[in-house]
Design a protein that fits this description.
With 187 residues, this protein is an alpha+beta fold. It is 18% helix and 28% strand. The protein has a single domain, classed as 2-Layer Sandwich (Alpha-Beta Plaits). β6 and β7 form a beta hairpin.
């Protein structure tokens, strides 16, 4: 049993999309699919430098926030969504009726329809592939050339994720929803 989480040093992102490609390949997702499992959002930052206006882009990694109190789970009318022994929000594919209540409830817009298998899908930290094989990294993490992702067991104080969260200031997205996300953005 573990309590897996991820942190991003998002300011290091170079928008190469290697994480997206690795994720899609690892999980059998079509390469052209938009906003499936994980995706990069470009955000413009305005500022000035020596009285000259400029805008600079920063890239934010988006995916399921692996909430400890997931609204998608509460919204599912079929009890198809559950939290597994590793603290990962999962779905019983055979119980999903595509009512889409979970998609509407998610404030992070992290769920999408898996048209091949007919259920609502999302990032599960490579639980069915890499973690199932005993590996302790995700495809997106090992592929990133900037090495901006940290992954591990929050309950293990010596894990990479626990150590980085002790050392660095961080935040989560949309705290007003009180979902207790386990995706942390490092400042």
């Amino acid at each position: 049993m573990a309590n897996y989480a991820m942190a991003f040093d998002y300011k290091l992102c170079i928008n190469c999309h290697a994480c997206e490609v690795a994720c899609k390949e690892e999980n059998g997702i079509d390469l052209g699919a938009k906003e499936h499992r994980l995706w990069i959002v470009e955000d413009e930052i305005e500022g000035d430098y020596f009285d000259l206006d400029f805008s600079k882009s920063q890239f934010i990694q988006m995916q399921c926030q692996e909430c400890q109190d997931p609204l998608c789970l509460k919204a599912c009318p079929n009890n198809a969504i559950y939290i597994d022994n590793n603290g990962i929000v999962r779905i019983h594919k055979n119980l999903c009726d595509l009512s889409l209540y979970c998609m509407k409830a998610c404030p992070y817009e992290a769920r999408y329809i898996n048209h091949k298998e007919k259920f609502t899908d999302k990032c599960i930290f490579c639980a069915d592939t890499r973690l199932a094989r005993g590996e302790t990294t995700t495809a997106c993490q090992i592929t990133c050339p900037s090495k901006l992702r940290y992954f591990g067991d929050l309950d293990d104080e010596n894990s990479q994720i626990s150590q980085i969260l002790k050392q660095r200031k961080h935040f989560t997205l949309k705290p007003e929803f009180e979902t207790k996300p386990k995706l942390f953005y490092l400042e």
